[in-house]
Amino acid sequence: MGNRYIISITAANRVGLLAAIGTALDELGGNIEELCQTVMQEFFSVLMAVEFPEHRDQSVVHDHLYDACRPFDASITVRDSGETAEATAEQGQTQAWYLTIDGPDQPGLMGHISAKLAARKIDIRESYGCRDEQEGFFLVLKLAVPPNVDGDGFRTELAELGRKWRLTVNVYEERDALETKDPRLLKIQSSSMLKRLADTPDAQTQ
Prior knowledge:
Elements: E1 3-12, H1 17-27, E2 31-40, E3 43-52, H2 58-68, E4 75-80, H3 85-91, E5 95-104, H4 109-119, E6 123-131, E7 136-145, H5 151-165, E8 168-173, H6 174-180, H7 191-198, H8 201-204
Antiparallel strand pairs: 1-3, 1-4, 2-3, 5-7, 5-8, 6-7
Helix pairs in contact: 1-2
């Protein structure tokens, strides 16, 4: 096994940036294992897990990417994936749940929600949120939930939070989230879940 690094790159969005990154990784002998890329308010951001040959040093990867992305004035971070191995091992097995929240945009909302989740040792694995022109807010979270979490108690606590903040809050286990067919959930659904969606009879007949 070679060296696996987690690479984060952010820059103002310009045509050719992703091509420059891909070319640089190819020159380094890198193999992308996982990638998440988006453009938000004209800023490009990509997070990648990339495996390199054993001799490829972390600083070499950073410097080569930095040189390749110099015309784009990009911010680059390269971390050894082994740095998180111990923390990940402590988390143990979890199940995927999805949380959707609709309501008026209010300062402090994300802080209150994340505090509720942290108190139950629930990890936020992915999230997407946006504010509309009417000052409403939509948030969807993919959660890693420990098996000892009381689902009914968790839902009751979130319902109380929803009443306090005038929010519509829904909690779905992974199999239930697939059945809702809410297109907003596709923003953060896992690759395994998307595969299940593609394997449904409706998808195969389209």
